[in-house]
Amino acid sequence: MLIAFISRQCLPCTRCPGRSWHSAQEVNVEQWPLCWEDDFQGSALADHWIGGHANSSREGRIAVNSGLHIAFVAGQEYASCGVVTRQPVIGDLDVRVQFSVDSPSQGSTLELAALSIDPPRNSGLDQDQADRYTRSRVYDVHGAPPYVSSEFDENDGWRIAWNRGSAQTLVDAQGRPMSDNHFNRYGKSIQPPPAGPVCGWLRLLRRGPHWTAYRLNLDDGAWQQTGEVLHMNLPDPVFLRLAAKHWVKEGNPAPAKQIVFQRFELRLPSPTGQPPGNETKTAPPVANTAPLAPEAPPEVRLMQDVRACRECDIFSRTSPYGPFLRVRRSPPAPGDDPENAAVREMAMICDFGQSEPAALYGCRKAPVMLIGINPNLPNHFIIPRTTADLEHWRSGSYRVLRFHPTDADYAKACRHAPEAPLEIADEAALEDLLRSDLTMLVAPQNGRIVGSDEGPEGSQREPERRHARLLLEMADGTRSAYEWPPKQNESWGSEENLAIVRGRFAAGEVVSGFIDRSVIGREVRVRTGREDRYYGNAKRLLAAVGTHLNASLVLGEDMSLHDVVACASPGWDAKWKLPLSSITANCVGKNRWLHRQIEQSDPKVLLITSRTALGLFADSALGRLSTPLSQLPEKGGGREGLFFRVATEGLWWEREVAGVLARTRIVLAPHLSYNDNLIPHSYFTQEKWLEFQGINPDAADWLSAQVRAESNRPVVVPVVFGEGDVMVCLDSNQLWTALSERYPDAEAALRALWIDPLNLISGAIASELTRLGVGQTAGARLTRNAGPCTFCRNRWWTIGDGCDYGKPSE
Question: What are phi and psi of 531, to 5 degrees?
Fold first, then answer.
């Protein structure tokens, strides 16, 4: 049977003569809606741009002053400067820029370009304030390949240029970066050499793999093609660059020049495929669409501000972790098993970079807000532990991040509870992404990775830099150590990352290797990973609150989730050597992401996990705890500890709102990433346990030998971060009866210290909600906090059918 498929391939036609490909939307390209426009008004660069210089030359200046002005003085240096979009544009695009140049001449070029390299986190327009972190080759005309550009070159006219190579750096005699044009390719210049000042428009059109450059013919207002190129080595997401440069040519000084980019326009295919004017008014498929207007409501502006934050170098420019794969899931292919497609599916690798800061997850007006320290990084950089489930490593546990191309897409992800994590489906899929070179480690025989929990001699990942030591133990008992990079004082590059493929391996199997940016644009099979314990225990806790209220509560609807610090790290203790004080100063003190969200959300209860999170939270200068932190117990657990006292005696966050004292109830919980923290137990400090062992030695030995009925874990377990404290977890009547029969005095001692954290904490939350009169909506959700909210429906995006609670009309 012959089956015909409609594909993106077509024969040459009158619409695209001489071409073998065009997008289905090419026919309507002139009707694509205008999504961005920027006239560069005022004196500051708008939020969606990053700008700066390619090197340290002082011969070029860049500034915003009713236009984007780039000026060069005559000199003897190579100088280039420009601006790049902060976030990439996804898919087909039509970008145009109006410019003027005072005196076209040899040794100078200006361009509108698309490239794949991320810009710096912060701008460096002023050379006196710029440094090695803000100067970048992305501001270099023809720099940071691969790229394709529509340009006005010297005094030769308009043309297309491209480079399919990878990003490279040449330096001059002074060690300054300069352009590497060895692999640059240029189209033929269009129009005769201009005389005098030139005003014009550059245009770059992308349709699938096809790129076309244009100039605007000012005589008849028609676009004239200046070149085309097919199958560029560029991924789906690209950054857009406006830049200009000058250089010494044929012994002549680098010329003085005045260039002004006067207007920027970006058009994208209609999100719905409908004609302009009929499409749903949602954000177009471009990241950081446009700077939001000052009148944007706080819930919208706050989310964009959090997402765009690059304040802390340790999470961006100097991070020793990452980059990470960021993927966009593909729909199941025809014929796939529907049940299998739910857990195993294809995803497109859209980026290889750092994780984004995290805004609030869930309904902005949920009555309970859960607050942790900060998000966790993907777990693939962690060396497997011997005590971990190494069979899980056999099937791959390399986590990936979800790619959000637009603010609208990011907002939709933040509207509900966090989705289950994604990870590479299996070791074969992960192995296929590795770079094929000498960094790939192949097992000489059967064996295992010696875990990071087997002491200092085990495998280790250094916390401060990109260096790892893998220790392999073979089946015959011999051990071999491998270091990446091989020299102790070296680190691997910032655009590559180590991937552990197998914790246990057979001879000839790949153990580890490196992934780099070359994987962008490839498809990979992913699966839904195991739910993080933090979110699983948050659900348990919320369900217990619902039991008190006789309600079925939903994480993300009845309880939102936030962190004091927005950016992810591998941990928050001293061993990771993070600059904790400066991070807290930026996130809590300067930017106040969490506290600004609390002001907008106005929750009834703040559920804060851990004393550390409470300390970070209380660092804000615009509020205070009703009982100072210094007067609260240092220890968290037990009847004399912090969690019990706050649940039974109360703690409030106090601040002035419009001259009135506002108080929000705080309930504390132990860290939710550890299941034992929420089970009923008797809590012993180290001193109390030693005392108990001295009085009841036989009972202590008996308890230490028992295992729990439900989990088969020991009855006596050390407290996480408890510095020698222990919990005695008797989880069945049989264990209590046996203890009572054998050691009645020990039973009495345990019952005196008995505590049920889940019931205690959930009861405190439910009691406060009841006191404040929180009821249920017609949809069985808890009633919302007071005040308007347009997060789900606004001029920038619409999530689902909009707000389910009538908030926009308040």
Answer: -60, 135
**Structure-block tokens of residue 780:** 């069985």
CA distance 144 to 160: 16
User: Distance (Å, rounded) from C-alpha 468 to C-alpha 490?
Assistant: 10
Note every long-range contact of 212-216, with CB atoms under 8 Å and residues 24 or more positions apart, other chains counting.
212/160, 213/148, 213/149, 213/150, 213/151, 213/158, 213/159, 213/160, 213/187, 214/150, 215/150, 215/158, 215/190, 215/191
DSSP codes, 340-401: HHTTEEEEEEEEEEPPPP---BS-TT-SEEEEES-PBPPGGGSPPPTTS-HHHHHT---EEE
**Rounded mean pLDDT, 380-391:** 56
**pLDDT > 90 fraction of the chain, expressed in percent and rounded:** 52
CA distance linking residue 427 with residue 500, whole number of Å = 9
The secondary structure of 205-236 as a DSSP string is: EEETTEEEEEEEETTTTEEEEEEEEES-S--S
pTM, to two decimals: 0.70
CB-based contacts of 788: which residues, under 8 Å, 6+ apart?
297, 807, 808, 809, 810
Side-chain half-sphere exposure of 285, counting CA atoms within 13 A: 17
d(CA 589, CA 583): 9
Distance CA(178)–CA(137), nearest Å, equals 8
Both tokens of 723, joined, read 């510095």
Q: What is the pLDDT of residues 625-646, one digit of tens each?
A: 999 999 999 999 999 999 999 9
Angle at 98 between CA 46 and CA 178, to 5 degrees: 75
- Distance between CA atoms of residues 112 and 424, nearest Å: 37
Say whether 137 sits in a helix, a strand or coil: helix
Distance of alpha carbon 373 from its chain centroid, rounded?
A: 16
pLDDT digits 0-9 by tens, 764-797: 999 999 999 999 988 889 999 999 999 999 887 8
Beta bridge partners of 399: 423
Lowest mean pLDDT segment, chosen from 204-218, 275-289, 431-445, 536-550: 275-289
